[in-house]
Amino acid sequence: MKSVLITFIVLVLLVGRLCAQDEVGPEIPIVLEHADSLIGSGAVDAAVRTFQGNVRFSQGNVTGRCDRAVHDVVKNTVELTGSVVIRQVDLTISAPLVRYDGRQSVASAPRGIRVDQGRRVITSRSGRYDLRRRISSFHQNVHAIDDTVRMWCDSLIHDRTVDTMRAMGNVIIQDSIRRSWFSADLARRDPRRGELALYGSAKSWTWDVDSTGVIDTAFISSDQMRSESPSDSGRRMTAQGNVRLVRGQAAALCGRLVYSDLDSIIDLNDSPIVWSDSSVLIASVIRARTDNGRIQTITGDGDAILISRSDTLMPERFDQIVGKRITITTEADSVKMLTAAGDAQSVTFRQESGQRKGLAKVAADSIDARIIPSGISDVFWIGGISGEHHPERLVMGREADFALPGFRSPGSRPIAEPVPVRRSLLR
Question: Would you tell me how many other CB atoms lie within 10 Å of the CB of residue 331?
Fold first, then answer.
């Protein structure tokens, strides 16, 4: 029995290091609590020893159990099989098989692993833990639960020193507190700072429920995205590169989007375009103010132009209003009123009793208009008014000749994508 105890002390010393957050030194006593049998031959310090049956051990604050343990003293390796469970303080590692290389201080679980620490649970088909660097890696069908956040991916690297996660391949994230889903090719999460960075086909879906119980979804996609939620302030989201935004009747394209919960402002930069109903706003910079998640006003600065199509049978005809600044007031994310200020101009195609009557082109200090789903209505020109009318016979086929400065076809309106399918938890 003395040989069994000495051999097991060497074995458990290695196992104890497997999951210790702070390395457990050899001076801490190791206690063999139970082993049904020991199989092995040769000198104790140069043989392969096998412990079988209800193996239990402890070393300081590390405890563990398994069905079978094989220790190679020469190679300084140990293999634990059969319902392996290792605990230290609030950390628990469960696996059917654990291999530990004492020379490299690296443990691997090639047949499935589960790591529990507080409210955090990570599972995968295989895993590897580097004790020296305190870095865990998980591969194939990875599922991580961290309090209110769930993550699915192909691979995950967890740096326990700085408590960050790097997820790769088919990344899907659910944040139940923010009522949001995210997807990307690669993601980096820092829970302590409330930061989430997404790279490659980054997408987000966020739900808001109004007082009547109606669910409203905001969809954003971009090349990369960052969400920051410090504990002492609201969320700030930044989307960069080929940004698409869809919410209710509103949609947008731009090169860069920034949103902050603190001031409820959405800033669109780098060639922004905003759609609402049948109207499109183009400007150098567009800013939207929100209230409880709903867009209240949209302001375009820098050679702004509003485009709408009132004649669906004539796709080349666009009503247009331009100004240095255009402000739009919305209701339920639908355009209602418009004000254009600074070198304001308008082009409106006229109809009477269903007959096309050419267009009116007017310049003024400012222009106010009411917007209905079918286009611009009830236009008011204020200050320094000058205008001209062009009959239908001079307009037909020459619509492009009457385009206002800054006009360009807005292209296709972006559409929302469906929420990704959630993968099952590995069991």
Answer: 11
Write down how long the chain is.
427
Structure tokens at 396: 């037909």
Distance CA 376, CA 367 (A): 12
294: its two tokens: 């709903």
Say yes or no to pLDDT of 214 above 90. no
CA atoms within 13 A on the CB side of 217: 12
pLDDT in tens, 361-394: 999 999 998 877 666 777 889 998 999 999 999 9
d(CA 261, CA 336): 24
Exposed e or buried b per residue across 121-142, where buried means at least 16 C-beta atoms within 10 angstroms of its C-beta: bbbbebbbbbbeeebbbbbebb
In angstroms and rounded to an integer, the radius of gyration of the C-alpha atoms of the chain is 32
Q: What is the DSSP letter of 1?
A: -
**Whether 40 contacts 66, CB under 8 Å:** no
225-249 pLDDT per residue, tens:
998 886 656 778 999 999 999 987 7
User: Domains, the chain, ranges and CATH?
Assistant: 1-82 (no CATH), 112-227 (2.60.450.10), 248-427 (2.60.450.10)
Instruction: Please report where in the chains the tokens 């020193």 appear, as a residue.
Output: 161
